[in-house]
Backbone:
């Protein structure tokens, strides 16, 4: 987006602001990798969207063995493979940029900036790994579904089949008391 209200954020603008040197070269390589990955995102989610028939209010589809066996799923896998390679490159370039910042020591606290870069790289890699799991094969304890998101794209979502163990380890264990509430909301008389 161009215009006065658009401000860049993230790791690349921080790296661009550094004095000329190894860190700025690494920033250029990272920026190139991010630029190359960007256009690969939409085709992946468009391939997912092509699998979800428009049925009105409930545009959801279970991702199961039958769906994974359809020819359309091969388009998802191919688009994901391209995006996966690009995201691996982004992560690798970000890690190299973090090392360059630490080695160059061109800022007062290079470890802080390097930590920001490493955090961003971990987030990209975590998302890449999770998406890879969902596209390749979900485990038996996970249900995966697609939801139409607009006219041509879809969201891929996963949830555990059994939430009890997760609730126990993440919420209930180690606490004497837990108060749980629930609410059902209605919009425009939808209930």
Residues:
């Amino acid at each position: 987006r161009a215009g006065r209200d658009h401000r860049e954020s993230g790791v690349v603008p921080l790296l661009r602001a550094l004095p000329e040197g190894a860190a700025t070269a690494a920033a250029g390589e990272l920026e190139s990798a991010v630029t190359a990955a960007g256009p690969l995102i939409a085709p992946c989610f468009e391939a997912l969207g092509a699998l979800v028939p428009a049925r009105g209010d409930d545009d959801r589809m279970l991702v199961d063995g039958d769906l994974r066996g359809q020819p359309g799923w091969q388009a998802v896998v191919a688009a994901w493979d391209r995006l996966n390679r690009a995201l691996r490159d982004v992560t690798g370039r970000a890690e190299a940029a973090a090392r360059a910042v630490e080695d160059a020591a061109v800022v007062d606290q290079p470890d802080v900036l390097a930590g920001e870069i490493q955090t961003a790289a971990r987030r990209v890699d975590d998302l890449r790994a999770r998406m890879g799991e969902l596209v390749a094969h979900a485990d038996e304890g996970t249900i995966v579904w697609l939801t139409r998101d607009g006219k041509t794209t879809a969201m891929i979502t996963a949830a555990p089949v059994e939430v009890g163990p997760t609730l126990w380890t993440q919420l209930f264990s180690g606490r004497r008391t837990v108060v749980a509430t629930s609410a059902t909301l209605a919009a425009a008389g939808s209930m």
Notes: DSSP finds six helices and three strands in the chain. The longest strand covers residues 142-149. Residues 41 and 83 are 6 Å apart (CA to CA). The chain has a mean pLDDT of 84.
